[in-house]
Amino acid sequence: MPQSADGVSYAPKVTVEQARVRWDQPAQAIERGIRAVTPNPGAWTLIGDLRVKIGPVSVAVDAPKPLPPGGIHTDRRHVWIGTGSDPVRLGQLQPPGKKAMNAADWARGARLDPAVRAS
Fold first, then answer.
1. Which N-terminal stretch is annotated as signal sequence (predicted)?
2. Model's pTM, two decimal places?
């Protein structure tokens, strides 16, 4: 049986700009937003002036310290980014022109300045 055209609505395509992560939002909204745009167009952020795609994140109740929105903390095994509520733990990251990799591996190689932020 054909569906009636009454009440039909169309969802617009998600643009690349809409896939940019807004770190001032609550952690759960960021986690859901990233899942919504993965794999295409792919969630992204600027870390310093480098545009990177980011993969799954999880709300981190075990972060070592509170972080301001966009603040970054790394250790040998994890990368945390501050949000409008709790920090999130970053799972994967894809630098421009490279394959996706573990975020902590990337951070060790990138030797991030302590003042660098995600925006």
1. none
2. 0.85
